[in-house]
Amino acid sequence: MFVNTLSGRFLLLAVIFVMLAEVLIFAPSIARYREEYLLARLERAQIASLALLASDGSIAGELAGELLENAGVYNVVLRRDEVRELVLSSPLPAPVDATYDLRMAGVFSLVRDAFQELAQKEPRIIRVIGDPVQRGGLLIEITLDTQDLHRELWDYGGRILLLSLAISIFTALLLFFSVRMFVVTPMRRVIQSMAVYAESPQDQTRIITPRSSIRELRDAEEALHHMQSDLTGLLRQKDRLAQLGGSVARISHDLRNMLTTASMLADRMEASDDPRVKRAAPKLVGSLSRAINLCEATLAFGKAEEPPPRLSRVQLAPLVEDVFESERLAVSDAAQVTFLADIPATLHLRADEEQLFRVLHNLVRNARQALEATRQPGVIEISAQDSKSDGQSGFCIRVGDTGPGLPARAREHLFEAFQGGVRKGGVGLGLAISAELVRGHGGRLELTRSDEEGTEFRIWMPSAD
């Protein structure tokens, strides 16, 4: 229905508001018209009485009646020099119904009397008191019939009502077409643009272009433009990630088979008589086992998410030493990186050893790469201690470095996949995976500090199962 549209309701409200304004104008207008009518009768009655006074009372009979008839009154009383005189009179057809004194009448009383007159159904006789014009005496009093007054008030009110209705409709139509031109049409263009964009949100040519000259609509169009641009970018990224996930799953599947073969060959190396081979074989087997587990976890991630941790009693100090030793081998010859551990030898955690290794390895590797990029000596330190968080007991592991700190862009999306990459060529997966693994243990991974003096991460792990 038309009334349910924005322009239709605006048209209806415009008519109502303009009519309300006209009513507020109508009330004093009808009161003013009644007052002027009575003042005119007073003036005509004063002229008739002055004619009688000018003749020294010689006017009487039919001539006096004609003067009263022309004045439209039944009698006139003119008070002059503190003497009350009956100047002209004629028989009253009915008793006086009401008396109105125009000398002290206010706006509200005039409006009230005017509407009372409009509400009267039968003519009546009223007395009106006013001031004579041109200082013709102290006061003048007349008695008249309200039949003509009642009829003229209704005629005047009808003309005002028709004029008000015409002005209301004309004003409402002007406002209606203005709203359609400046508000409804631009809104329909925005709605149409949204519908077109919804058909193919990945098509950048369907993103709305802000064109409205109205500031509020311009702001809405710009906000919609940014939202559609971001959504298009996210949808494209989602498609690329889906394709990448399929590729990674296939690669991980084949790589797992290769690493399984290499692991079996490494097992045979343990039977070698060379002492150096015997020392290196367990570490090689451990690295290959972690690589195989990583491939299997990648395949599982492609299906859903990281598998739940397999909790066991893990001694933290040897695990940290394994992380440091694997990173020492990766340090370039030109870099001077020192690895420090401050962990009680008796500290044990309830955790998944492989997942905890991945978390610490990701953090230490990022720190080592940041220090190597500065070409300055640096320190990477891991410390751990008992801690409490939100009233729950657990363990706090701190991983810090003396590197240059993280840029602001990286801190904004630090734990978001493919968003928080810092190193050139990195994809930003390490911290996202680490945060997910820690959450799987019921803990939290947080960035506690990152400035020109270095970066520090905090891992809180609960002590309960």
From TrEMBL:
GO MF term list: kinase activity
Pfam families attached to this UniProt entry: HATPase_c
Keyword DNA-binding: no
Residue stretches spanning the membrane: 6-27, 160-183
Keyword Transmembrane listed: yes
Alphabetical list of InterPro entries matching this protein: HATPase_C_sf, HATPase_dom, His_kinase_dom, HisK_dim/P_sf, Sig_transdc_His_kin-like_C
The Histidine kinase domain, residue ranges: 250-465
Record EC number: 2.7.13.3
Reactions the enzyme catalyzes: ATP + protein L-histidine = ADP + protein N-phospho-L-histidine
Keywords recorded for this protein, A-Z: Kinase, Membrane, Transferase, Transmembrane, Transmembrane helix
PANTHER family: SENSOR HISTIDINE KINASE, TWO-COMPONENT SENSOR PPRA
Protein name (database record): histidine kinase
Species of origin: Roseinatronobacter alkalisoli
